[in-house]
Amino acid sequence: MIPTVATRLLAASPSRSVAMKRNCHKLLPLIVILAVPGLVSAQQASETSWAGLKDVHLDVIPRTEDERARVAAVTARPKDFSGPWAFEQNAGGAQTVRARDTSDAFSQPASNLTFDQELDFKVGNGMFRRIWVSAPASTIASDGLGPLYNARSCQRCHLKDGRGHPPEGPEDSAVSMFLRVSIPAPDADAETIEKYIVGTHPIAAEPTYGTQLQDFSLPGLRPEYRLGVEYTETEITLSGNQVATLRTPDYTAADLGYGPLDAQAMLSPRVAPQMIGMGLLEAIPVQDILVWSDPEDADHDGISGRPQVVWSDVHDRPMLGRFGHKAGNPTVLEQTASAFAGDIGISNPIHTAGSGECTDAQTDCTAALHGGDAEQGGYEIGQTGLDLVTFYSRTLGVPARRTVDDAQVLRGRKVFFDAGCVSCHRPTYVTHRLEGDNPASFQLIWPYTDMLLHDMGPGLADNRPEGRANGQEWRTPPLWGIGMTETVSGHSYFLHDGRARSLLEAVLWHGGEAQGVRDAVVDMPPEDRDALIRYLESL
Amino acid sequence: MLRTILTTTILATAIAGTAHAQSATEVLDTYADIAEASYADSLTGAEMLKDAVTALIAAPSANTLQAARAAWLEARVPYQQTEVFRFGNPIVDDWEGKVNAWPLDEGLIDYVEGAYAGPTDANQLAALNVIANPSFTLSGTTIDATEITPEFLESILHEADGIEANVATGYHAIEFLLWGQDLNGHGDGAGNRPWTDYAQGENCTHGNCDRRSEYLAAATDLLVSDLEWMVAQWTDGGAARATLTEDEEAGLLAMLTGMGSLSYGETAGERMRLGLMLNDPEEEHSCFADNTHNDHFYNGVGVQSVYLGSYTRTDGTTVSGPSLSDMVGKTEPALDFEMRARLAEAVLALGEIKTAAEAGFAYDEMLARGNAGGEALIMRGVDGLIAQTRSIERVVSVLGLGGIEIEGSDSLDNPSAVFQ
User: Fold this and answer.
1) Disulfide engineering: A115 pairs with which of A210, A473, B5, B264, CB 3.0-4.6 Å?
2) CB contact under 8 A, A121 and B265
3) If we measure between CA atoms, which residue out of B81, B18, B92 comes closest to residue B307?
């Protein structure tokens, strides 16, 4: 099932055995990130100025002093590693759901929903799995597909609400994966970029293809491309005479439908992320995230951690970026709205173009019939539908951990802490106390992420900046639920492009700031390494 | 705040005293007895369906096809009443997708017509038509479908590629094989598959009648075996009964969670309101047979039966015993009266949909945009289900089951206990 490459090459070798087709764009190696001196100095000068960021997307009830003290106590690094910690198995706090051993494990409504909220969840789920059709159609509430799209419904990429995967071979489509694209904008500066946020890398949409490549299109239109991927395998020697094999991907944008890509095009492969616990991540107080930010590595631990800050179209102000592989979206609502527009081609109150993600250069695409209707406020999905899908996306429950009291799991937990994984994969937070019956209110949660950007080294780099993230930086992904990936998705592919075929491979891909921790895992006694993986499997 | 979370959860022992401790056990026993009886009736219905399918395959004709359809409709009556056992009972929850999953991409199974999504669909299997293709590619691997067996449907085809719409088993797959696509949109009529789709030799229409028969037989066999398994879970010593009765408060909460979740989110929300929002004739639970009015009605009856502790079996006998109604009525007679009234009103409102549908106004016609009468009928059903859920919430509260928090009591001795 796993694509193999005939020749095994060492990682250092740049040669590839992949034949280049005419019209194919070679993605690796990519262009060096362009740095505009004026912007960089501005970024350095203002790195500490994010204290004013606010969680305006939530109706927050400010913490009392007493609550602050209790939150500090419960989220402090534990001292006793001898047994399970209180509530450790309830990864999603009161939202935690029973860990089913079926592929439905990520598809459950959070446990603390009221019956009303459960209705919104169910109707949102109906919209999430809704197959969109081309306009015009008699079912006006679900027309407006494309004209260019990656999938016809949310669920077609977010399979079982779990992780997507790269194509399994030449016969398999890239159903749950796509390429983002952009070009450098060397002439841009703070004055010419509207709503410029300090530290943002100056890039622009690819002139013909926009910011995302779509591999499907309505009849009569050409799709933009076909994703090609080939892997080169490299052996890594581990302590105890063990050997692991990593596969290095090489992507091609084949069969380009609208002419060659810009010569400077930068492409970033992305698989669909898992969907659980997002409303909880959205409710972590921004200042509790920023407190771990250390852009200049002032504490000299080798770990920086920089906040992504993006412009919120909904709130019309800079906000902490939280969602997406480079944290390009500040809220679940905005993530959902951009996915509707970019992935399915569905206009909505936030992304209003009926032509979805097609550019002015794609004239047949912009000229195609739109599905906007008065019943949906003139859009292809109206505010009500968008809110329902957003609610659904916020309230998918995180499964309870398994085997928290297993001796090997406990040993692995100690390794996880001692090796330094927790420097970025921070275990605990307490969410904001929120008005009303918001199910994310004031929960002790265990997502294992600091929600910050880190340089992960050249091996994992897409060399395509996004917002304040440079071409080597990625947002630390949450680890809750990763041990259930095989159960939910039938595979164990990890990282932003699914290149890692196991949790161990995912660890071994860590470079950059995590190089030291990764090396420690390579060198540690095999029993410790096994325990570490066993611990991750219990998350 | 109404669900059981983890088996290891420490439940707040908020239930009022020990006065009704004994009756809680009895109420749970009644509930389990009703579950056992209604799954047994569902099994009987499935076995009769199997007999009718066997007759259809042995001697295809308009009559044998009609008899099989009638058997399917009858089999749905007890089954829909069992849906109230979902949500609260993990064993039922983990299992039910095998027998009642919907909606489905029917092109996975057999030929389709009309403006059906072609192979450009991101679900490449939506146009697979396994009946016509004894070999196909799944995620780059060649699958041998030469023999369509229950194991093949269950293990390989069902939810193939992780896509939920790839429903290969259960009532709705069988429904499609008996009725075919409903190509009438919001107009009159259900699916109208010709009996000759099962004719052998030259009379066979749409090809592959032997494989279509094989699929139908395998899907029906699988339904029977799945229901046999579920009946066993509710007999004395069965796992579902044992789980339910091992903790009284959790058991009572499971009963009420099932009632509320089926009423509100599942039926009123996903199956009714969504269809009205989308005005899509396919957005109905039994879209091939146009039997959705019965699906909703018997859901409502099932909820009522659990509260009243009385189930009328398909042979006319009743299974009854101490009930939630008795328990609530002891201390809060007004609330019990209210709960019974709301349940009766919801069943009546769902009954109006059923009455109209049986008089020729099918559910998919009610869903048409701008059909005021249809929308009003469906909304009365939705409102009835929502109103009864409000009362269910009050029952949860009165029985002291609402205070369940997975983080235990709010003790300042344990700083972690304050969250929530």
Assistant:
1) B264
2) yes
3) B81
